[in-house]
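Self-study notes.
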Amino acid sequence: MASVNRQPSTVNGFRGLIGQERAIRLLQQGLKSGRTAHAYLFTGPEGVGKRAVALALAQALNCQHGDAVEEGCGVCLSCRKIAKGLHPDVQVIEPAGPTLKIEQVRELEADAALGPYEGKRKVFVVDGAEKMTEQAANALLKTLEEPPGRTVLVLLSTATSALPLTIVSRCQVVIFSAIPAEALRAYLVGKGIDQTRARLVASFSGGSIGRALSPEMASLAASRDLFLEELGRGLRDGPAAIIELAEKQAKDRERLGQNLEFLSAWLRDLMVAKVSRRREWLVNQDRGEEVARQAEGLRLGAILDGLRTVNAAMDGLTRNANPRLSLEHLLLRLREAAPSGLLQVTA
């Protein structure tokens, strides 16, 4: 099947999976009682462990250690094959291009009808389920209505609202949440990342392990410094420079979101430095001395006004406000709040 992902999963049961204790506990209750659902819908943000939990569930269902186990042992042949992406009864189906097509679902149906080859259960993990075409969703619905014996389907989705209600209603819904920043920081430290960088990355990862481990996070500090330096220069140079900067930033909507997060975190740190000497509370701990130095020359009211304005701009952009006009308003307000320079970052 061209749509099957056979890459190693590095999953070793539910052990080591962080931030989804409630979802895992729900699944383990079903495993222990022997009342596993025939179909699950794992829904939540991207990169928070939905696929890893689905594969851990597949290990538990096929573990050779015994029946009704709470999780796979991780050492038997079945668990090791699943971890390496080599088990013939565990498949991850992904969209072929921008959509998940009916041909992929029909292949799934044909394979499911044959029963397990060597394991106890066949497990099909459909990643990006919200990308199913209407025809694919209708075909999958037939399988959900009359599920083959010893088969478990796990649909992974970041947008349950994009799925037909007929699909959702036939699945046991398991909700995944963003991973708390502190848990993500500890996870990164365990991966060998130093405490300061781990805190910075965790703060800007949106609770996503996938994003925290992405290549772009390697240059996170440099990206932050370049943006804040450019922003500080624009604020000092006056209204014409502000308008030019707003136009430039508005052209890249995805990067704009990241840059506003940088700005919000920097202002938040200025506030912390103004009212406390607890450097460990800072997001930008690698720039702690610079944050403290800037905070000394600013009024707390100006910092708070700036922080409120930035957060209002971020909220407006989520509601499709005009990016350029929102940025112009934001930058002019920041300059008004601290004419002498709210930001003076040197990359």
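Second protein, same conventions, sequence then structure:
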Amino acid sequence: MADKKNVIPKASIEPQSDKKITRRGFISWLSIGWLAFAGATGGFFTAMIRFLFPNVLFEPPQSFKVGYPDEFTKGMVDTRFKKKHAVWIIRDDKSIYALSTVCTHLGCTPNWLEAEQKYKCPCHGSGFRKSGINFEGPAPRPLERFSISLAADGQILVDKTKSFKWEKGEWENKESSLRI
């Protein structure tokens, strides 16, 4: 008799599990796989098309005409272009200039107060004189001016791509105001 301790068990080629995949189970798993593949491919192409056609923020043009010089009254602030172009047009005794409507403190939009002859920011109380110089509140510097010139047809042309800062001495630049 052979020693039972030294006997090597025979290898079995039968599956360990009694679970066998049926044709119906195979087709359902295949369907799930194809649906997952189609969903991933659709998501990829959706992202690709979204990348090719991004959201575009349409802004008003940065260079625009505001009218003829004689349409602006001396000593008055013209607020017609505040909402659309974010600019005030001011005519004094010697010149016409375009001021930015963006507060230099945190970017709020000040309001022109005709009775008090000043711009007042509603967010934190900064005050600016008619010229744009800050005199009260937390605003660290005056409002910016934009380039202003006469177009070929005699109208005033404002170009917001060029801004001039008072603290850098740029208000003395001939493009920062229109001499009349």
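Instructor comment on the second fold: The chain has two domains: 22-57, 63-179.
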